[in-house]
Design a protein that fits this description.
Chain A is 29% helix and 25% strand. Chain A contains 19 helices and 29 strands. Chain B starts with a strand and ends with a helix.
Chain lengths: 761, 159
């Protein structure tokens, strides 16, 4: 069977040969035009005058459009209709698209976009959390609050109580392929769009609105993205709409790709947070209550901020059973890029909050932070243990972090190394080492319940070859390979017999974004459903034809088994079915069962199941410079029955490094005028090869999914991102080992922030 | 500005094209020669996605003008395999699942090949530092380093 095997990524040969095509590599007709946006240079104000004559006169420019030139909808928001593609009178952040240039080359378009003379009437922007709170600038009319138990009484009556606050920076996606789209006008009203997007259906929807046509006039195709990480869930809308509008107006193909600086200045990022806490605990480190306040800086438009902030609240417990909890979440509207989806979707911020609290409790009690964590875990689920519930009322009936942690502690040799580090630190006055453990429990399903659906389309041809399509998109995570393995397994053929095809809204309609780690769960099941319909058609016919029972037909090793002693090749079986007029094509559909969620009350079962993992990271810091290195990382992650261990280990490693980057080197800096000063890799530092841990051990935890997911696997895209929190905690541990009682380290832990935490002690 | 006629050698074949003097070598490779394997990741020489070699020197092709390539010999990802036979580095990248989205892969392969030509027995640290200018956002680099070390070993064995 093809599933569970470590097969290479789809199109592997094309990738290593430079032949794998991304949007900007697709051959285009010679009359293709290129687009660029002109951007606002102020954070807040109104446009008093816009002189675009120099732009229009520039070499290669065909047309220049402003908001008033747009024929239909001027909106690229995912749902709230609050995000004009081109600014109308008001501008809301530095980098907001104000006009668009259509030119004969990418360079001409970008060059011309710099020649505008725009004058603004500026007003004072709201940039910080304090400013937003003072102005009551927010989404929704007030904070969302989820409460369980009686936190106020528990806080008052507890033997120990602590308060604190931590700032947590945002994160740029830095997908290596920037945002890009290509629009190809067809003979009638139809428009074909190639887009680097995680959400082809939303692109289709927004382009239809922009062109004033029904969705059936727009076909969106996505073969692959050069990375997504959530940054291509909604942020590609503007490019696709701009290209479609320009293509309709000029009748020519139109392409747009953001230059890296433009990409970073225009598009949204991970939400930065401030988290304050008030925690009650006993002398053994057992926590009875936490009261959190989350302040999320959401930027100028709503985008996906509400579900992101909700998910942060839903992950405020991480793996810990805390009887009394209160979380107050403020979604603040600021004159900055509209913060958007990013791997974990608020979950990492929620998890970071409770992990920070646990470290504080450990330092206050003098206990090993690991012990404090273990004492607060939910129970591992066995029939003997009463099932505990989260603060939003979902039963935690698949918990496994106790067992998983024991296994990781043994393989990483935690106790010995912790003792050895302590001895080493005693002899090392300048360099200090630190070690930390952190777990993750991550809820799987879109919290907007209706998004948990997927479709597929599978064809078997008369030569036995198979063509597979589904609504999920490939951004490097290996979804296409996994779903091809599912299809191959259903028909008992080698995976090479399954042709993987580009996501296409004309083949599978009404898809959800490939997001929330749900790609394989949803699309794998839809592919299985389609394959099983065809298999049933084939089995029914072959049983009748050969005079046996339908359940006596089997598919394996490229053969169709008919009764006990008759076999034929899958190819011959397909041909025979075709000649006997049996349908060899089917759609498949799946919706996640058993979930329901009320986001206003904060009650229900938003998640079908949880995915788990844990990490132990060791670092060394230089107390004179604040610099640090990751010496060793040990990761153990629960991917259920992995559909493809090679791909899943890749996800775990990549997520850990990306999560570590978020909390260490990746610092977003806005100046007082609201300008993002870190808008290129020269100033915004994602981890590089030399930052990879010196010793890097990664393994999957064997743990069949209790729920009936595709081959009992688990989603793996986002959960391991939070393993990177152990890097931050290890740096904090090293700071504590340098004699600082309770390190007040801010995230990201840049060398500057490490030095600051060292000197505060 | 009038275009300039450029004659050069790309992947061992003589080629010629007309370049605007302001176009980068990356633009010329992609737009005039159809060699889209080299990618633009940042356009400022910081990410390595456009790595090629010019007369054996590893460069970011987004930082060199196309007209400067006249009379030089350029190697890109498209020239790495010999016909249908993949280079050992390419095979090892597949074997080790050393890429995810694949966008950085051509640049990393070109850079790694250049390293192994200069130093057939690099230490892991040398590999890490040589590839420090090639960013990857997906993999966390572990499998990339393992693949390069493994390819180096195989190539030493074959030599």
């Amino acid at each position: 069977m093809s599933v569970a095997r470590p097969l290479p990524h789809d199109a592997a040969r094309e990738h290593v040969s430079g032949k794998a095509r991304y949007i900007d590599d697709i051959p285009t007709p010679s009359n293709t035009l290129h687009l660029a946006f002109g951007l606002s240079t102020i954070a807040k104000g109104t446009i008093s005058q816009m002189d675009l004559s120099d732009v229009l006169a520039a070499k290669g420019v065909v047309a220049v459009l402003t908001a008033k030139d747009l024929p239909f909808a001027n909106d690229v928001s995912p749902s709230a209709h609050d995000e004009p593609m081109l600014a109308t009178d008001e501008v809301h952040y530095v980098g907001q698209p104000v006009f668009m240039v259509i030119a004969t080359s990418h360079t001409h378009a970008r060059h011309a976009a710099r020649l505008a003379k725009v004058t603004y009437s500026e007003t004072t922007p709201i940039l910080t959390i304090e400013e937003a709170l003072a102005a009551n600038s927010r989404f929704e009319d007030g904070p969302r609050i989820y409460t369980s138990g009686d936190p106020q009484t528990a806080l008052i009556s507890a033997p120990n109580r602590l308060q604190g606050s931590v700032d947590l920076g945002g994160q740029e996606h830095f997908y290596l392929e920037g945002q890009a789209a290509l629009a190809l006008p067809q003979e009638d009203a139809e428009m074909v769009i190639h887009s680097s997007t995680q959400h082809p259906t939303e692109i289709q929807h927004k382009v239809a609105e922009a062109l004033g046509v029904a969705m059936h006039e727009v076909r969106v195709e996505v073969r692959r993205m050069g990375g997504g990480f959530g940054g291509k869930e909604s942020q590609g809308n503007a490019l696709a709409c701009a290209c479609a509008i320009a293509a309709r107006l000029t009748g020519r193909p139109c392409k747009m790709r953001y230059d890296r600086d433009d990409d970073m200045i225009i598009t949204g990022k991970r939400h930065d947070f401030r988290i304050t806490y008030d925690v009650a605990f006993d002398d053994t480190g057992r926590i009875s209550a936490v009261d959190f306040i989350h302040y999320a800086r959401c930027g100028w438009a709503q985008d996906l901020s509400l579900p992101v902030a909700d998910r942060a609240m839903l992950h405020a417990d991480n793996g810990y059973h805390i009887p009394h909890m209160r979380i107050e979440s403020h979604r603040l509207k600021t004159n900055t890029q509209s913060a958007t989806a990013f791997r974990g979707f608020g979950g990492p911020q929620g998890v970071f909050g409770i992990e920070y609290v646990l470290d504080h409790v450990a330092r206050a009690t003098g206990l090993d932070p690991l012990i404090v964590r273990q004492r607060n875990f939910y129970h591992d689920s066995t029939p003997a243990t009463a099932t505990q519930s989260t603060h939003y009322g979902q039963k935690v009936d698949d918990f496994c972090l106790n067992a998983l942690t024991d296994k990781l502690l043994a393989s990483a040799d935690y106790s010995t190394r912790r003792a050895e580090i302590s001895q080493w630190n005693a002899t090392s006055p300048i360099l200090k080492r630190g070690i930390a453990y952190s777990p993750v429990k991550f809820g799987i399903s879109f919290t907007l319940t209706h998004l948990n659906q997927a479709g597929a389309l599978v064809h078997v041809y008369q030569d036995g070859s198979i063509r597979m399509n589904h609504g999920g998109t490939e951004m490097g995570q290996g979804l296409f390979q996994k779903t091809a393995q599912v299809a191959a397994s259903r028909f008992g053929v080698p995976v090479s017999q399954v042709k993987i095809t580009a996501t296409d809204t004309a083949k599978v309609p009404n898809t959800s974004a490939t997001a929330a780690s749900s790609g394989s769960d949803l699309n794998g099941m839809a592919v299985q459903a389609a394959c099983d319909t065809i298999r049933s058609n084939m089995s029914g016919f072959l049983a009748t034809h050969f005079g046996t029972a339908k359940d006596q037909i089997g598919f394996e090793n490229g053969q169709v088994l008919i009764g006990h002693d008759n076999t034929m090749s899958f190819q011959d079986a397909a041909k025979l079915c075709y000649e006997n007029r049996i349908s060899l094509s089917s759609t498949g559909f799946y919706k996640t069962p058993d979930i329901e969620w009320d986001r206003i009350k904060g009650q229900g079962r938003p998640f079908y199941y949880f995915a788990y993992g844990a990490a132990i990271t060791e670092v060394v810091i230089d107390t004179l410079t604040g610099e640090y290195k990751i010496l060793r990382a040990d990761l153990l992650h629960d991917a259920g029955n992995s559909l493809n261990p090679a791909l899943d280990i890749g996800q775990v490693q990549g997520a850990y490094v990306q999560g570590s980057g978020w909390l260490t080197s990746e610092e977003l800096v806005w100046d007082d005028a609201g300008r993002l000063r870190t808008h290129a890799p020269s100033t915004y530092k994602i981890p590089a090869t030399a930052d990879r841990p010196k010793v890097f051990n990664t393994a999957l935890f064997e743990n069949e999914n209790q729920q009936a997911t595709i081959y009992r696997s688990k989603a793996v895209g986002e959960p391991p991102f939070m393993l990177g929190i152990s890097t931050f905690l290890a740096i904090s541990d090293a700071i504590a080992n340098a004699g600082v009682g309770v390190p007040m380290l801010t995230a990201p832990a840049t060398p500057e922030n490490v030095l600051l935490a060292l000197t505060q002690g | 500005m009038s275009k300039i006629h450029v004659q050069t050698i790309v992947n061992r074949d003589p080629v010629e094209f007309l370049a605007d003097p302001r176009e980068t070598l990356l633009d010329c490779l992609r737009d005039h020669l159809g060699l889209t394997g080299s990618k633009e990741g940042c356009g400022t020489g910081d990410c390595g996605a456009c790595s090629v070699t010019v007369d054996g020197t590893l460069i970011s092709s987004c930082l060199m003008l196309g007209v400067e390539a006249g009379g030089k010999s350029i190697e890109t990802i498209e020239g790495m395999a010999q016909g249908e036979d993949l280079h050992p580095l390419q095979r090892k990248f597949i074997e080790h699942a050393a890429f995810q989205c694949g966008y950085c892969t051509p640049g990393i392969l070109v850079a790694a090949k250049n390293l192994l030509e200069k130093n057939p027995s690099p230490t892991e640290t040398e590999v890490r530092y040589w590839l420090a200018g090639n960013l990857c956002r997906c993999t966390g680099y572990d499998k990339i380093i393992r693949a390069v070390m493994d390819a180096a070993e195989e190539m030493r064995g074959a030599a």
